[in-house]
Amino acid sequence: MISKYKNFLRRNIKKSYISLISPFKNIPSQLSFLYGHHLGEDSVRSEYLYDNLKRLNKNVAFISFEEACEIVLSNNRVNHPVVCFSFDDGFEEVVEEIAPVLREFKTNCCIFVNPGFVNGSDNEIAEFQSSRFHVKKYPASWRQLKKFCEKGGVVGSHTNNHFRLSELGYEQASHEIIDSKLLIEKQLDISCRYFAWPYGTAQDISDRQLALVNEHYELAFSAIRDSSVFYNSERTINRDHFEGNWSYDFLRYFLSQPKSRRILK
Ligand SMILES: [Zn+2]
Q1: I need a surface site. Which of 58, 194, 195, 263 has the fewest CB within 10 A?
Q2: How far is the CA of 5 from the centre of ligand 1 (A)?
Q3: Measured in angstroms, how far is the CA atom of residue 96 from the centroid of ligand 1?
Q4: What does the pLDDT average to over 131-158?
Q5: Separation of CA 114 and ligand 1 centre (Å)
Q6: How far apart (Å, rounded) are the C-alpha atoms in residues 221 and 215?
Q7: Residue among 104, 105, 62 at smallest CA distance from 85
Q8: C-beta separation of 19 from 245 below 8 A
Q9: What angle (nearest 5°) sits at the alpha carbon of residue 38, between those of residues 32 and 39?
Q10: What is the 158 CA–ligand 1 centroid distance (Å)?
């Protein structure tokens, strides 16, 4: 009980600390890859996201996902705070509600999808929701993803079935990494250039699996918030977490953390 209270206190002190300092903290001139999943589990709608992004856009430029990747691949730097957007798990509301908001800011996002979720039967979708995503959201269909691509969206792979790769044997992991790319390319008639591994931390993928990812994809993406832009090589990029229901102050606070191009491992 006491530790519950302490946690509550700690959370709320951190919240008020963030709202206190964030209006005064400058966002450094750097490129951040933001990633989220959905608009939130409550009744937050896309208007809330729009208002927050509008405030953020006064100080931070939004660029397309591919442009951000080009900047990193060509080892360029930015002279202004810049962000791009990506979303994991391929929920329908990203295509239907978040992507239109981003288009209003003349930018796009990359959605990392699991073909096993997109193609899933009702039972399989329920299994993804309960044991892997822990949220009752539904996948965008191939038809919706195709339209999303036609309007300038990018689709990457998040493996076939959202298993924790580090718990799989090499062969099964290879299937998850390579076949998902082939399925996405076949269904959407695109080149699937980017990969984000499920759960996204260092413990969730082995170095050997990541080397395989780097063989088949142009860039890989973690879910690690770190002061380094890169994870273990310049082909694997760390991303900063945010969700559609986060406040402007939270967003701004996290973007104000300086990044280096140091490679961690
Ligand atoms: Zn995921």
Answers
A1: 58
A2: 30
A3: 19
A4: 97
A5: 8
A6: 14
A7: 62
A8: no
A9: 100
A10: 7
CA of residue 133 to ligand 1 center, whole Å? 7
pTM: 0.90
Question: CB neighbours (10 Å) of residue 215?
Answer: 10
Pair of tokens at residue 152: 């300038």
Q: Give which of 235, 79, 64 is closest to 154, Cα–Cα.
A: 64
**What domains can you pick out in the chain, each with its CATH number?**
2-255 (3.20.20.370)
- Please identify which residue in the block is written with the tokens 């038809």: 143
Nearest to 62 by CA among 95, 39, 84: 84
23 CA distance to ligand 1 middle (Å):
31
How far apart are the CA of 79 and the centre of ligand 1, in A? 32
pLDDT tens for residues 94-103?
A: 999 999 999 9
How close is the Cα of 201 to the center of ligand 1, in Å? 11
Task: Give mean pLDDT, residues 222-232.
Answer: 92
Q: How far is the CA of 125 from the centre of ligand 1 (A)?
A: 14
Beta strands in the chain (DSSP E): 31-36, 61-62, 82-88, 109-113, 154-157, 194-196, 219-221, 236-237, 240-241
**Which of the four pLDDT bands, split at 50, 70 and 90, describes residue 244?**
confident
